[in-house]
Each structure stands twice: as C-alpha cells, then as structure tokens.
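Internal ticket #5521
Category: modeling
Description: The requester needs a full-assembly model to guide mutagenesis choices. All entity lines are attached below as received. Residue total reported by intake: 913.
Assigned to: D.W.
Attached entities:
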Amino acid sequence: MKLELRNITKKFGTLVANDNISLTLEPGEIHSLLGENGAGKSTLMNVLYGLLQPDEGQILIDGKEVKFSGPGDAMAAGIGMVHQHFMLIPVFTVAENVVLGHEPTGKIGNLDLNAARKLVKEISDRFGFDIDPDAKVQDLPVGAQQRVEIIKSLARNAKALVLDEPTAVLTPQETDELMDIMRGLAKSGTSIIFITHKLREVQQVADRITVIRQGKVVASPTPKASASELASLMVGREVDLDVKRKPAKVGAETLVIRDLTVLDDRQHQMVDGVTFSVHDGEVLAIAGVQGNGQTELAEAILGLRKIHSGSIQVAGKDLTKSTVREVLEAGLGYIPEDRKKDGLVSEFSIAENLMLDGSFGKPFAKGVQIDFAKRDEIADKLIAEFDIRTPSAQTLAKQLSGGNQQKVVVARELGRELKVLVASQPTRGVDVGSIEFIHEQIIAARDSGKSVLIISTELDEVLALADRIAVMYRGKIVGIVDSKTTREKLGKMMAGIAA
Amino acid sequence: MSKKNAKPAELLPEAKEVTVLKEIMSGDPVRIGLSVLLGFIIGAIFMVVFNDDVVKSWSNFGADPNYALSTVWWTIQDGYGALFSGSIYNLNSDNFIDGIRPITETLRFAGPLIMAGLAVSLTFRVGLFNIGATGQIMMGLAGATFVSTRLHMPQILHMLVAVLAAVLCSMVWGIIVGILKARTGAHEVIVTIMLNYVAIDLFTYFLREPNLLLEVNGGGTPKSDRPDSTAMMGSLLGPEFKLNYGLIFAAIAVFAYWWLMERSTFGFRFRMVGHNASAARAAGIKVENTFVWALAISAAFAGLAAANQGLTIDGGLTTSIEAGIGFDAITVALLGGSRAGGVVMAGLLFGAFKAGSSSMQVAGVSPEVLGVVKALIVLFIAAPPIIRALYRLPSPEPKVFVATQKAKAAKVIK
C-alpha cells in the first residue's frame, strides 16, 4: 500500500500545528518521522488516524483520496497505530485482546476463541514474535506487550503501521528485538511510520527520514546522516551532543551508602545490600534497565522510603532515619524521575514551584508569611539563569513544555546551597535542546565541587555524564566501572553478567 | 511579537489530564455564574408549572392566549420579586428602615453560612472532601451552649469564652477525622458522615442530660436553657434590626482564611498537598500531619459558625438550631470555588435564599423552589460537561505554551 499525505495543514486557533506537510510512505518502507516534543508529529498522526480532521490537504491511498472520520475508517483502510501507552486489557489473554472489538464468532454467535488463538499464533509465527496466545497480558514483559499491540494491528490487515515512540519503554535488548521485527515486517511489504526522537534508532532502521520542526517539514536527510546532523535539523541550530567535560577533580567522600537494603510497598526486596560512595567533584551514574531497584534507591536516599537495613551518610552526617526535610536541609538536591508526580505542582505558577521545598524559612518566607517580593525576585533570577522559556514567572507549570518543566525542577534544586545532587532520569521526555542544557548544568554542579549521583536508564546519558558507572541489576550493584567502559560490556552488566 | 513566533504546539499529553474533581473544585467563575443562572431559570419553570392560576389559564389557552402567557410572566415576577423584596430591599415599605431590613437579614443569615463555607473550602483545597461541618457545628453548639447557659461571666468576656468553647469543641471533632485519616488511611468522606451522626446524637444526649444542657426548670423535653444575656452576640445596628456581631466574626474569618490560604506558608503547603501530595512529600512536607492541621483549622471555622448560631437566638436551643448550615456549607464552598471572595458571594446568595423564603411564601410561591434552585446549582457545578454543552463553552484543555528558540529573544526585547 502506498500512503500519501499531501499538503496537510491543521490549525488550533492561531497556532499552526501542521503547516503544509507532505509525506509519502512507499510499500515496505520504514519512514522515520523525527522531531522534538511539540513539533507536530502527533498532530499529523492523529490526522492520519482520523482522530483529527485536517483544515487543508488530502490523504491518498494508492493514489485515491480517502477521508477518515474516525479511527475505524483508518483501520478499515489498512492503517494501524501502536500508541506509546498500550491500549490493552491486562487481565485478558493475548488472543482476547487481539480480537477485542471484532471477535470471530461461531454459528450461534458464540465467541470463537480457537479462531482467535489460531490467528495470533499464525501472525506470531510468521514474524517470529514468540507470543503465547493464552498468556495474560499483565504477565508479559513490556516488550512482549508491544508486540501484542503490533499483532492487533496486523490482525486487522494493517498495511501501514504507525509506531509512536515505541522504544521509550524498552530495554536496549528489547529495542534491538523491535528493530528486527520492524525489518521483518517491512520485508513482507508492511510499511512503517516510525516516530521517535532517538537518533541512534533512526540511523539503524530508517529507509527514509523526514524531520519536522515547528509544524513544517524542514529536511529529508538520508539515514547515513550523522547523529549531530540529525539533531541540528531537529532543533534548528548547531547541537553538540558531546558534553564538554574537564577531568574530574575528586575531593572528599560526601555521599556514602553502605549495605543498603530497601523494600517496596509489597515487601519485596528492591535494593539488596548496595554499597557505594560519591566524591565531591565527580559524577557517579547508576545504569540499569528500568525496574531494577533504582527508583527505590533514590527514594530511600531522599527519605521517602523507609530503609530496611544499612546506612546513608551525607558529609559525615547519618541520614538513615531522617525525614525528607532533614535530608533536604542537610544539603541534598533531588531531581525525581517523574517530574509530574514528584517534582512539580502543575497548577502552581513557576514562582511557586521554585519554592516548593523552601516554605519553611528564608529566603522565601518571613516568619509564617511568604515573602512575595523575594520569591518573584528569585524566580526571575532562576528563570534567566536556567533559560526557562516562559512568558512570566506567574505562568502555570502545566503550560510549559516538558523540557522547560524539567528546567524548573533543575533550577529549584541547583538554585540552593547543595552538597549532593541526586538526579533520577534527569532528561526523560525532554527535548534535545533542553537535554543539552540540563547536562551542562549537571556538569557545572560537578565542577563546582558537588557530589553528583545520576540514575539513568539511558546508556547515552550515562556515558555522556559519568566519571564512574555503577550498574544495577535486580537490586544489586553488578559492578562499578570507569567511564571508558564499552557499551557492549555495560549492556552485558545490565543483564546481570558481572564484569 | 510573541504571537508571531509562537510555535505550533501539540497539546502536551499531561495537559489533558484534567480530573473531574479538580475541575469541579477549580471554581471557574464563568461556569459558576452560568450554573446559577440556569438554576434560576429552571426554578422559574417549577414556579410556573405548579402555579394554580397558570394551570387554569392554560386550560383555557384558546379563549385568552394573552392572559395565559401573562400569568406565566406574573408568576415568575411575583416569585422572584418576593425573593428580592425579602432579601435585598423591600419595595413596599414606607420607610427606609423597613426597606433595608431585608438586606440586613440576608447578612445575618449569610454569616454562619460563610464561616461554615470557609471550613469546607479549606479542606477542599487540601484535597479532602470533608462533609463533616454538620457534626463540627453540633459539637461547637454543645460547647457554646454549655458556656452560655451554665457558666456566668461578665458581658463580652462571657461571649468570647463561649465562642472559644465552640471553636475548641469543633476542633476536637475535626482533629479526630484528621488523625483517623493520617494514622489509618480511613477515608474522610466516610469518617465525616459517621461523625455527623455521632455528633447529632451526642448533642441530643447533652440536651437530655440535666447536668449538661437540659433546661433546669423545663418539662424534660430535650431543650436547653435560654443563654445568659451576657453571652449573646449583641445587635450590631440597634434594636430595629436582628443583625448581630456574628457578622464581625464572619468578616474576621474571611480575612483570616484569605491570609492563611493566599499569604502564609501554611496555606502554601496546604495547597501544595491538595494539588499534588506526592510532590509535597518529596519537598519535605509531612502530608499526614498537614491533613490533621487542615482539618483542625477547618473545624475552627465551623466552630465560629456554631457560635454564631448558638449565641444569637434568644431562647432555648434544640437540635434544629443547626439549620442545615453544615450541609449548605458544602454547596457554598463549591459555589465559591473555595476562595475567600467566592465563598462570601455564595454565602450571601444562600443567605438571601433564607431571608427571602418567607416573603415568597407570603406571595403564594412555594419557597421549596429555592431548594430546587440550590440543588440544581450544585448539580450543574458538579457536572461541568452539562454546562459546557448547554452554553457551548470550549472544553478545558489548557493552552500550552511551548517555547521557541526565538522566545528568548522576545524576552530580551521585553
């Protein structure tokens, strides 16, 4: 199937989300749509999927114009979409999920699950998906759940698949598997629109690349283009993906963690006897696949989660049993992995968000009254210093883009006197420009002599920032290695194979 | 400048996550105003449909259509006219004093509604759906009545001690909820409903108990003595009006609430917990303790409302003295968007309903229509999509500001 989007324009009020965008998808082609958050990728895909009606422009399938008034029409025309957040029912089996909405029925209208199983098995075997039709979706790992989503589309005879940021939730290994699957699908004639902001993946699988910026198609580079070329096209200016770092000037041991064991809410041992320390002036990065105890480790350090055994010290002060407030006051800065949940109050203004943990005293409060003049003065200073793009300090946090929201969190934490910075996934869901900026700020904190602990599941980020790398697997530290360690070796460590 | 540079924005996914509860409590003034208007319109329909004259004239519609239509108009005018005359200015009076008496009555009824409304508002803003104002008022009434009938003190001091007793008794009731919530995770809705019943029955028990509140020389009916005159909140504008010092307490309460929520660090933490408890926790705030504090301070406002009720009636009290204020307070808080100014407006509206209902009855319109209007207002506020659909308002997808490379330049120019 040849799919064409011709001169699509979509406006929201005065904003032009898609400005005269044209895109062609040949049969069996992997076409990568590259762009930052807010560039207009999702709008374009929602137009294609019938969720939005374009103001101008046409959609053509094999040269014939089609009009979609809803996802049903798009599906009927052979377009399948795999959303970033899966649309699966966890307690149903794979087969049940796949046929949901167009169930095969027997003679008297009864549900024919055998036909459903056969269908899943057939697709799974054809493309090497390795999926058991009778497994419950909730028992499958994330990568397998994603394959179920793909099977769902294929079961409805999708000839063109849209994969929206499919690798965001995957481990490096699962990502590689997905790439293989994509190549297999393309070979069999299915075309794929691959939406992502990860440059390495684009270079690996794309046959063709279209870069969108501010609602317009800005370039169609070849897949051989370098990562920094692609990044520059996305951002619209020169981007230096390598963080400039001077050699670390290592000082005293400031954050010391010994034999730390932490349980999660279900009393499972998530952090298991972890010991490490971070020195002033260095970045220690904890690498590992999501869900290996990193979240619990970070929460335990901040005092959000009770420590089962072991100890935490900051600059010689024991914080094992301290409250969050005591930990913060001991000079620990914390960038949480989920800024919307733990880092920001979306309904608060930027100025208010910049004083979230500062309501107990100076400089933000005079006695029990907020010092509004001082608060706004500090807010304006931090907005300038941390390059937060906003009309004013009184703008609500929820109105900012992800990157600017994250800069608010970073500004708040680095804006006060710190000894230690703990940053969990500091650039998750953040645009390239902001990633660059936040990385620079983290390195600046290190160079000013702070101890920095980075927890990241992105190997690129770990390698860009770390002076030393500790790899975590199933709650244990597999090993602590230096920053020159190869990707392959780190990948193995992330799978639990000791160095 | 900035418009030209504004980047086409995809709506960020997080911006769409507007929970219904947040929307209900957000108190968008336009939507609330339209809800009130719609409540009045449907109330008018009720008046018309249940009016005998209208029914008769419409059964002969063919004979005199003009008359039939005009009865509709007159019914509405009579009904809401009576509400106006009874609550704002009496147009039929021959002197100024009688003319403005209705508005002073509205103020008198509004006082306790506003104070109780503030009580509920405070907990709303901490993210607690507290419907325990009734119980807190009951306990406050018990405290105030004990001091006003059993203790004897000089003028003013007696009143202040009675107010303090009301506030403290209410706070005890609020703190119980807070501690149960903080320690056991018990849901505040269940706890407050149950404690309302406990408080109502406790108050009745106190009223039957000779050593506590039962009338000393009474016939044994559950009723208290008349409060000492030294404990009464005196008249504010002289003997011609019933308006009393309760209004001063209400004004102080409104200012205190505004300062607490908008200016103080306590209010900042309250609001933080209300919007995002998990971020508050990460910012070093003890969320559970915050719940206890919020419920205690909230109950103090309810205690003021109780004092206003218990210390202004010149006669023995029964359980009916609560007068549904605790329940109306929820509506007042919703209607007022949990903001100080909004609660004042909503309290005045509901005070006007109370003040005007008797003159509506005199005008031959059932005052129950006002109950319907009140209920409809709550319904429309609680179901934002109805109002949006009826008035074709845009859905609340917040505008998302997405910065551009040039926005920085724009900032510099500014």
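Resolution: model delivered.
Comment from assignee: The longest strand of chain A covers residues 15-25.
Ticket closed.
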